[in-house]
Amino acid sequence: MNYESIILELMGRVQNLEQKVKSLEEQKGLVVAEEPDDAFEEQDEEIKITRSIARQHAMDTIKRKYGYFDVQKGNRARQADIILTVNSGDKKGRELLGKFYYSKSFHDFPSGWHTVREADLEKDHIDFHIFTVSYENKFYSFLFSHDELKRFVEKKAKDSSDQYYFYFHVNGGKKTENRDGERDVQFNYENWDLFSQML
What are the residues whose beta carbons fall under 8 Å from the beta carbon of 129, sequence distance 6 or more? Predict the structure, then answer.
């Protein structure tokens, strides 16, 4: 029995549940800040980074790099987390819809767990996927076009809930995805040029 894969899958499921609980708490306005006794001393050292903050960072990065995109938060009706709309030129009005995944690193290097549902890969209206890891108040992002991610998961195993698990690392100069064996994702790391290639 491969205990490592069982442990990794359980860690992924726990993280997924934590994200769902946090999302529900934010929706209901029940978020209570957990501050240690010496919170005032630590306040300047570390900012609490949430999925919303990480997504806003990704959106701001796109806005800075591409003046011709209007960038907005997605919604359930559009089944997207980020919506990019071309605001000028011959492609004015063209939209790119994306999914955003966030994880915080709990190691001594940037690494994070993410889950992607098979159903999200079957949605042809999705154009891109952004996986972001926060570590020491910095963001590390991996960007995939929808087709790239579909090809990437061909070598991954699904769990019984039809989910794929990703474990991205930035360690020792290497950018890898390690859930189902180490795979080089250097090309996808901070690849903000992806959007110009999609138009």
Answer: 98, 99, 100, 101, 116, 143, 144, 145, 146, 149
Question: What are the domain boundaries of the chain?
Answer: 49-198
Tokens representing 197 are 């290639």
What is the Cα–Cα distance from 124 to 138, expressed in whole angstroms? 32
Name the DSSP class of 118: H
Please write down the HEC assignment for all residues of 55-82.
HHHHHHHHHHHCCCEEEEECCCCCCCCE
CB 130 within 8 A of CB 120: no
Query: For 106-121, what is each residue's pLDDT tens digit?
Result: 999 999 999 999 999 9
Question: What would be the CATH architecture of the domain defined by 49-198?
Answer: 3-Layer(aba) Sandwich (3.40)
Q: Are 72 and 83 in contact (CB under 8 A)?
A: yes
Report whether pLDDT(43) > 50: no
Dist. CA 44–CA 50, nearest whole Å = 17
Q: pTM, whole model, 2 decimals?
A: 0.77
pLDDT at residue 189 tops 70:
yes
Between vectors from CA 180 to CA 109 and to CA 112, what angle results, nearest 5°? 30
Task: Say if CB 63 and CB 69 are below 8 A apart.
Answer: yes
Per-residue pLDDT, 1: 58
HSE-CB at 66 with a 13 A cutoff on CA atoms is: 22
